[in-house]
Amino acid sequence: MTLPDRESVSRRTYLKTAVAVGGSVGLTACVGELTTTEPQPDGETDTQRVPTGDRDSLPDRQHAWNGYLSQDAHGNYEPPAHHVLRYLSIADSVALDSAREQFETALTDLESAFAWSSDGLLFTVGYSPRYFTQFDEQPALPESVEFPEPTALTDLESPTFDTYELVVHFASDRPDALLAAEEALFGSQETVNGREITAISDLFDEAESDRRTGFVGAGLPAENQDVEGIPSGNPVPEDAPLFMGFRSGFERTQATEDRVTIEAGPFAGGTTQHISKLQLQLNAWWNQENHFQRVAKMFSPRHAAEERVGDVGEKLTTDSGLTTEDISDLLKQARDDGVVGHAQKTARAREDGRPVILRRDFDTTDDDHAGLHFVSLQRSISDFGKTRAAMTGTDIADESGIGPRVNNGIMQYIFVRNRGNFLIPPRPHRSFPTANPEANET
Ligand code: HEM
């Protein structure tokens, strides 16, 4: 991906593309865009300085982001606008015991350089099952952690499995903070936001790495819809936060951070992470379906008939407006209407009235194709599997006769390209943990 001509795109598109391009080129473009020439009282020229952090005040849970995000008028948490997933594998020459301190120092440097918030920098470090195979302990991981190798979850997919050893998920409303953090860790920038950062590129094998990027929030999908998978004519509404056009992730249709946290054992305070790369094919979604059909497929047929949603979900407040009947009468609705909604179907996996996974997904134009990086946190990977099975809805499709893809929620439009499972340890064990960190410390 290359940077567009500055004059040909909006500022937000330019900044989003700078994140996708990354490296020193992306960072320079970003800083140039966000820096004004007007001198400030203290002589600085950056009018929007990124707040610095107080690393001693941070929670043990790496995934404790909610308390540091902005909230909308209804109290829903607003995800950071820009995201980067850095997939990494440790270089063969690196000894974990000696590299651990270097990695941890780099991460704490970042926490001092940037506030732990949307207008600073949020990140998690997660490790794959493959990472833990290097330890001799039997069993390899304590039984309190359930996170197997990724598998195909439906007959409709044959994904590539991400077996990188770790993944760092960076998120911020500030593309310059995000890119500067990456450049300091993996590139040649020594100081960011007034703090020196320990570099860590020597710890990783560049050939075994990947970088995926994306964005979420009203306006960003519309501004970035000129890609494969979205038909011409700019169909994505101006204020849609995602390419499929609707708001998602309401306060009450997300698991709480408590619900997704591992409760016992050495990784207590951690969580598991599933990341899938979904390609979106939205030609029929935008060209053949009308708004009524899109609402029926995304939410439920009753949502469409009763106009519960609005253009992009603006009629909804703290949840998706599903009634108990929308969930319990699913099969009847599917038979009567010949269509079943994504939210309605997936809600069958709720426990105590709430989902068991916490979604932190975002759109992407990686590979110049519309897509969505589905990042999900849950106490155990089986919580994800159960929820995904409810979404796939093979039982409903079979029993109602609607078929596996067409009219079965949004199954027709999403194609799973990659899947990966990771363990996000609590902060004290986030740097190259052994399979049983507390046991090893004694
Ligand atoms: C392009 C992909 C996707 C889009 C655009 C999308 C969008 C949405 C929307 C608009 C809702 C209703 C609003 C809300 O409650 O958040 C929803 C609900 C939900 N989605 Fe998705 N979704 C996608 C993929 C997935 C996947 C892969 C999963 C994995 C299982 C998933 C799990 C859920 C869950 C758990 C809910 C809440 C259900 C409940 O209310 O209990 N979604 N999604």
TrEMBL record:
Cofactor(s) this protein cannot do without: heme b
Keyword field: Iron, Metal-binding, Oxidoreductase, Peroxidase
Region feature Disordered, mapped onto this chain: 34-60
SUPFAM superfamilies: Dimeric alpha+beta barrel
InterPro entries the UniProt entry points to: Dimeric_a/b-barrel, DUF7405, Dyp_peroxidase
Coiled-coil stretches: none
Molecular-function annotations in GO: heme binding; metal ion binding; peroxidase activity
Pfam families, per the entry: DUF7405 (PF24152)
Keyword Oxidoreductase on entry: yes
Domain of life: Archaea
UniProt-recorded name of the protein: Tat pathway signal protein
